[in-house]
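Wed. Picked up where I left off yesterday with FAD-dependent oxidoreductase. The coffee machine is broken again, so keeping this brief.
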Amino acid sequence: MTSTACSKRAAKVQLRGFSMSDQLPSHTQCVIIGGGSLGCNIAYHLTKFGMSDVVVLERDKLTSGTTWHAAGEIVPAVLGNEWECELYTYGRNLIAGLEEETGLATGFRQVGYIQPADSPERLEELRRGAAFMRRFGIEMHEITAREATERFPVGDFSDTISAFWYPLEGRTNPVDTTQALARGARSRGARVIEDIPVREILTANGRAIGVRTDKGDIKAEHVVIAAGMWSREVGARAGINLPLQAAEHYYLITEQLEGLDRNLPLLEDAHSWAYFREETGGLLVGLFEPDAAAWNVGSIPGDFTFGEIEPNWDRVLPHLEAAFRRVPSAANAGVRKLFCGPESFTPDLAPLVGEAPSLRNCWVAAGLNSLGILYGPGIGMALARWIIDGFCPVDHTSFNVDRFADGSHNTPAFRRDRTKELLAKSFGAHFPNDTFKTARGLKRSVLYDRLKSAGAHFVESHGWEQPDWFAPSPDEARLETYSWGRQKWWDWHAAEHRAARNGAILMDMSSMAKFLVQGRDAARFLSRISCNDVDVTPGRVVYTAWTNEMGGFEADLTVTRLSEDRFLVVVGENSHGHTETWMRRHIAADEFVTITDVTPGTTQINVHGPRARDLMQRVSTVDLSNEAFPFMTAREIDIGYFNVVALRVTYVGELGWELHVPNLHAVQVYDLLKEAGRDLGVRDAGMQTLASLRLEKAYRDFGVDVDNTDNPIEAGLGFAVRLDKPGGFIGRDALAALKAAGVPKRRMLQFLLKDPAPLLHGNETIYLDGTDVGYIQVGAYGHTLGAAVGIGFTEYKTSLTAEIVNGGNWEIDIAGQRVGAVASLKPLFDPAMARVKC
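Structure written out below (tokens, as returned):
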């Protein structure tokens, strides 16, 4: 979000309190590339946490990139993750007290914030979001349209059903706030040096060891890339993939409007992709339009300083006219300024934060998606802790930079096309099951055309085209109508679910990441990073967690021993980059281990359901009986003309196999299975069905319902932790201490609503005997159990025993209404796993 709250002249002269030195140090603990909001936040927090030897290098003047024209709005929109709430509230509270701490005025004003809901679907989204955000200290109240008008009298709320009022939110001056952060850092020893571009990150033996500038080199123990929209190019020169693209961002400032109060609340209107606020007596109208334009796809000019972009009136005028319908008086006011400036965005609208996967001790903090002022303090805090302590204090699974370790999402064509929808996607209304529409087809299974012909509706996940549900025909699958209720595919998905429970289904799971881990020391290496015992006989499949030294999850996955020195690691597509990075970073210097990503060459076809064995036996000569091929074993089998690796595992709670098929043979194997199962009623099934099946069995998923701040003991996965295995494992001592402490206060439970009508999508608050004790991590509809089902962590005042779980009065808040629920420590569907092991 942008504003002219600070002009270029003001931004240049407001360097009070600084004595910028041209003397370049030869060595520092940490050098930060970039002197915008984020770079100064990192320096502020590093020094706050005890690292005083910090240098900030700014290519021009502090705030001269995008910080100088940021709006400085401190508003939460609709936050959908715990980490977003934590970082937002941290930043809001820090900025509110920054002036008192540093002695520099920041311009912070608590003017309040309004979000209108003009449609039932938007109201549902806001009500669901309100219940979630309140538990993290964000005060918000549902108000009437009349009350919204009283607070924002120039607005037209005639179509508004309800609105939401946030009294504690406000605005700050971005330049002044950044200067205050820099002063706070300098007061604790940091040096801030301007007019010194970084030309190169110095490296040795896979590590960053400093930076090169026109004025000399600085050796450093840590290097941080916080260069805003220039970060992509800074990273590329060091071989780091940072998919980040600048986009045009517009706002208009009207001439003065009579009677406009200086403390007018902030207003964000998702219906018109616009935001509004008072600006020196006039009204600022900002846009996050749905046809955004990328800016300088090839390269960001190095001399772009306090710069503006020539506005495209023809493109933005229709969007301004839509925005004026919310504030009609603005349409008749004179235009003081139409501003266009660049803001940088990531392909999935999550930040790029963490240690670069390809370069140790090189850290990244970029891609704040026009929310740099709002999230800067929280990101600065989290990254500073990460650098100093060695682990991230908040859930990093969504924003860890290693999710792009494979180099994807970063071609000029992809960035240009994806940017078109990023502004509106970040700002507008959101729905469950929504997906990106642009820059599609990045990663396709070889079965894509077959599945499309079968009626698949595809969604995108980490670049992969995944079949979400299947319609009776391709034409019916083409368009999606989004809703918070039962969507148009509901009955089709229910039929897939029933086929899995009563017959047989095929699922294309090629997006799962697959690695061959081989070599003399492969068993020793994998044993050291795995909580479970993976040093098993060849042909065994082991489910395990990987944890850090604190006992927090770094992955949950299967490890299959194919031979004495050859293992197959299989993990979800959302953990692809993180899993590979974790493995490569933990190979000891004296170990001979190779890691090969075989995902691109392998098609994974899952066959599940009580008729799965009947189907498989029709196409294979191998004995697939339970005695010959028991649960959690693997072997090579024939299917028709072809040999494939079959793993007898399940993520849906039914008899079944994962078939790992070379791409060369995948279409033929799929066709053979479909034809052979025609009279058995075999169906294709998509991700919606996978979700409902796995949640009925309460199966966990790293990056969705457990993250690096959770541990296997509290998550109910203690069965996959072998504390007594020879040699131990990373995180063993921390998990042993948790185990020794007895029944934990915090535990993951499964929940089933007592009313079959409401739906669970995740983030719904959990109540035990009237007290807020947690929230649903993820939900779906349990068609076999007969109601919505979900899993979530709950925290009690004492040990959360089975007696308390079974005897408590449980309720789930769904958009402000509490619904009774059953809670369970064990899976509510087939707890004895009789169906899986038959």
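Quick read: The chain is about 25% helix and 25% strand.
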